[in-house]
Amino acid sequence: MLKILARTPLRRPILAGIAVLAFLAAGAGLYGTARLWGNRGEASCAASASVLERLRPLARGEVAAFEVSREPVQAPGFSFQAPDGTRRDLASFRGRTVLLNLWATWCEPCKREMPALDRLQAELGGPRFEVAAVNIDTRNVERPRLWLAQAGVNNLAYYTDHEAKIFQDLRRAGLAEGMPTTVLVDPAGCRLGHMSGPAEWASPEALALIRAALGS
């Protein structure tokens, strides 16, 4: 078609218009990626580079599968439901380091690691750190709360996303291959690393990793 257009008197305006449309389409794609990933050179993440260096040698033992981010980058703005029924996103945790964990009652590895996440929250949770465990069961939505009570998990706030949209967002961002999925985010909202699969989050290795993220 471009060959036909090239032989017409209006070829230059038409071809110029096609070029502009292609440029806008490419720009839209880049904008969408920027919204999902954040800007890599964003000033708010500049201080995170030194934290990443502290974390690299600590991804070992029980948390050997934890992938420390290669460079500072804003975490996507995932949202989920808080215990009071309101919607929360990662921006609402600014000022605190967050270990975001997705789990479900149909996921046996998820359930096995929940007591350790509960102990991690009991050990380090407070004004500077929180384990945000988000349940993504889409059926029998009362079952997760009952299971937590039966398992004696009582230190974690009950966050939910019964449409499991947060998992889809994480998968599109390349941060989720299966369940459970965990993402570590610093107080500035910068992604420090992630893990696909379970871990013993109350182990000495995990505690050392989180304490390094906290700078303590």
TrEMBL record:
Keywords: Cytochrome c-type biogenesis, Redox-active center. Its main location: other. GO terms for biological process: cytochrome complex assembly. One of its GO terms (cellular component) is cell envelope. Residues 69-215 form the Thioredoxin domain. The keyword Transit peptide does not apply. The keyword Hydrolase does not apply. SUPFAM superfamilies: Thioredoxin-like. InterPro entries: Redoxin (IPR013740), Thioredoxin-like_sf (IPR036249), Thioredoxin_CS (IPR017937), Thioredoxin_domain (IPR013766), Thioredoxin_ResA/DsbE_sf (IPR050553). It is found in: Cell envelope. One of its GO terms (molecular function) is disulfide oxidoreductase activity. Pfam families: Redoxin. NCBIfam families: ThlDiSintTplARhiz. This is Redoxin family protein. It comes from Enterovirga aerilata.
